[in-house]
Amino acid sequence: MLDQKLLTILACPICKGELHYNKTDKELVCLVDALAFPVKDGVPVMLKDDAREITLEEREKYS
Ligand SMILES: [Zn+2]
After folding, report:
1. Mean of the per-residue pLDDT values of the chain
2. CA of 35 to the centre of ligand 1 (A)
C-alpha cells in the first residue's frame, strides 16, 4: 500500500504536476503527460522509460 504522505510529495518527473494514484492498477497517473508510472513493491518508479501511455478513456476516469 502506498503511503498517502508519500503521494502528496510526489510529482510528475516531467511536468512536476500532480499525480493521481490508481489503486487498482498500482500506478501513478499524470493527466498532463498522459503517462502512468508503475509502483513496484510500494515504491513508485518515476522514470519516463518505465511509464506507459494512458488512453483517452483512462484519462476521463480521473477528470
Ligand atoms: Zn506530468
Report:
1. 90
2. 7
- pTM of the predicted model as reported, rounded to 2 decimal places: 0.85
Going from the Cα of 1 to the center of ligand 1, the distance in angstroms, rounded, reads 22
Short-list 38, 39, 32, CA closest to 14: 32
- Per the structure, the count of domains in the chain is 1
| C-alpha 18 to ligand 1 mean position (Å) | 7
CATH number at residue 33: 2.20.25.10
Give the domain extent around 30: 4-62
| Spacing, Cα 12 to ligand 1 middle (Å) | 5
Euclidean distance between CA atoms 60 and 43, whole angstroms: 26
